[in-house]
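the two lines:
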Amino acid sequence: MVLLLVLTAAGCSGNGAKSAKQEPKDIQAETAAYLLEQVPEPAVSSTGGEWTVIGLARGNIEVPADYYDIYYDNVRAAVKSGKGVLDERRYTEYARVSIALNAIGKDPTDVEGYDLLEPLCDYEEVISQGINGSIYALIAANTCGYELKGEKRHLKRILEAELDGGGFSFDGEGEVDADVTGMALQALAPYKEDEAAMKAAERSIEALSRMQQENGGFGESSETISQVIRGLSAAGVDPMTDERFIKGENGIVSALMEYWTGEGFSHEAGGEAELLATEQAMCALDEFVK
Amino acid sequence: MQLQSIRHKREREQVKKPQLLVLLLSAALSAGFLCCFMTGLNLTAGKGGLLGGGLKGGLLFLWNEAADFLGNTHFLLLTKYQGAGEGCGLFLLIVWLLLSAVSYGFVRSGKWPFLLLYLIPFFAAQILWDIRSQPWAAALLLWAAFTAAVRPRLSESGGILAALLLLLLAGGTAAGVTLAAAGEEGALPSAEALSGRLHQAVEEARFGTNPRGDGSLQPADFDSQETALEIKMETPDSLYLKGFTGSRYKDGHWEPLSCSGYYQQNALFYWLHREGFSGLSQMEQIEQLLQKKGEHGSISVKNAGACRKYVYAPYELVGKTEPAAKSWSDSFLTAAGLSGAAEYRMETLPNMVKEWPSLAAELFTKKAGEELSRYRTNESHYNVRMYEDYSEVTDSQRKLLAENIGREGNQDKGHVDYKQAISAVQVWLEENFIYTERIRESEDKEDPVEEFFRSKKGCDVHYASAAVLMFRYYGIPARYVEGYLITPEDIEGKEPGDLISIPRSNNHAWPEIYIDSFGWVPLEVTPEYYDRMEQPDLSKGLENQGASDAQKDYDRQNTRQYVYTDPESRPEDESILWKAILLLAALDLLVLALAYGIAKLIQKLAYLRKRRKAFGDADPRKAVCAVYTYMRALKVPFTRAAREIGNRAAYSKCEISETDRSRMLEEWERMKRERHEKKRNRSGVGTAAGADGSRL
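prediction for all of em together
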């Protein structure tokens, strides 16, 4: 009998926090706690690095006194020992690190004497990574207020990659990819004076609305939903209230919350909390939890 | 009559049995203690069996063996004597008999506190000083002690069973104390690990700590402005003050050589010092050889907040410190005394390390004269030792270095050229690492140096550690040093004799390398510290040719086999020996008296506690009876009131009230006062007490 009670309690406890209705702010706080526990010292890395720093900083989360300084030390060490080279081929590394440094108030143009945004001025190298390269080059430059060489070329390239009917994909063909479209929206959003950019952004929003599922989501991963939320927010669309993104009783935000495990966010529905999914979700939460 | 004689015979036998047990326990106690002492100090009886060695010869044999053991295990330097026999059987036999006689008195008295005289040294030796007796010896001692302690309380029939149980208890305790339990992964920490942690705690309590952790590579408290050293200098100058010197990098921290390593070198350094050569004051010797005539200046150091274990001395030390410090094969100095070095003085030359390259070049090219030849001969012996002791690079370290800095360079001439090596180390560290004091211990307990190489960030302890390994990789003897800096900023504006307060934030770690023929020099490899101390000009003096010549000298010397005779033992001196014996005997008596006093005190306190409890019993009848019983022991005539209340409580069924108790206690106090006055009157002190008219 006692064993039964214990097992029942254990079975309930995992979903206890999830099933009880939690305010987004509380979820944001708990997500931040998960990130701080999983990432005690953020490194220069696509996981356990910049996205954690960006998520915590933009959410104004209280962190240990030297938390961001330790991350900055790691960036300095990587930049110095690499003689200014973060990665030979993936130039999105420069963009990601620059965005993170900007989020914590550091200058990415002077890290151990190296300008981390300068490599993004090499147009040919940047576009070798595909549309992603151009997207992140623009996001980083606009976030950091940097005058990027080849900025207009990157913008043009993005616009040319738009699919018929709106939206974007990795290779400029086939079906709309919600992830890429969300990122493209973030890149296009600052160009409010550019009519073509604004129209492309509007068409992307419509495309996303069309592809949104009945449960409010976009496919099987939480990372995609997070990316869409960030894109819509950048484009000035409120992901919680915009009618285009409410399907019946389900919206984007409620779809994202389906991945909340009580500790962090999972990659797939019903899964365990994962770091990458939680980092992306944290960045999304920052957009609508004020 | 027959019945009477049988009863008497039985009574005599019953008296004999306890006596036999007392004798047995006395013999076992002393034998166990001696065997623990012998096996713990790794002593043997030598040749000649039970009667071998003679009395004096046996004592000296034992003393010299103990001196070797303590020298090898703790680098405790005791004088060894000539005249030792080939064994110590007879001496041990006599000691055992004497000790058994003393033990007999203790055991027969039945007073267990005396047994602490045996047990306290035993446990202290095991736990505090790593003197591990054999389990069987420990079991014998503990069994004898436990049995002696409970003997007076055992009945005849229960005695054997109790003795067996105690044997088991003793065996278990002996095993636990003398043998290591489960290893690092086990549920129980090993005795060695526990001992290590206890040692560390005792050392921290004795000496305090330094911010850099003295080799632990877990620095903290970087910015503390709390004063570490208060210094007065006759000629204020910036200096590196050496403290902890790490020779081996093992398990993520630096440690000196083993005690046995230092002890084995004792002979070498004895002869070197006799010849006027010292590894701690080579700068002084160089200065004399080069006839620089630098002015000596005195320094007084008061340790206000640094670790007091070390005597912080500069590379320019002249002679010895006052009071004299203990030299660990001329690599570093420690203080004697329970709480370490509080204050000391020394003579020093002006800062020479800032110009060591040019001095070395001058020395290399100086024409040989008698003095220089003598110096070089002595230095060549020292040189061999330095290469043997301070060049170690393990396979895993070599692999790590090869992965990070490539090949170990051209060592055809013994080691990479000094200038090239220093430049390579400094440049590589400066260009590839960032300095930060935000270092946390990694959760997966990664080795600090490996983590430094991987993460490319660290503070001075990491830079220094990496540099030491790199220099050794390049074939140059190197050591890891922690100490304090007297910087140019610290002495700015200071006049001779002014107080210079060196804060704990001046604690620093640096590598030192051995320059052939010249000596140990400190190097700065942490970029953030380049501006804090004057740096030598490496472009002057470290010519290839000079180094090459010195290296050829080293190669020639290295092929010789050096055999060092033990330093002359003290000549046979009977008076010293008997003085030592008398001193030991006096100390023993003092300890015995102290132990007796403590035992009596414990007994008294127990008695008082028992009496207080009895007098305060919740039942007034029991309390009054107890007071009545104690009154009898005072041997002072009872008053009528006391006798009446006491008899009523003891023999009648009348109710005894709290008032009766209070009255009885008053009588008790009065009778105590009377007894006290009686004693005083007998000794002729004070006035005679008046008789109490109410006394019966």
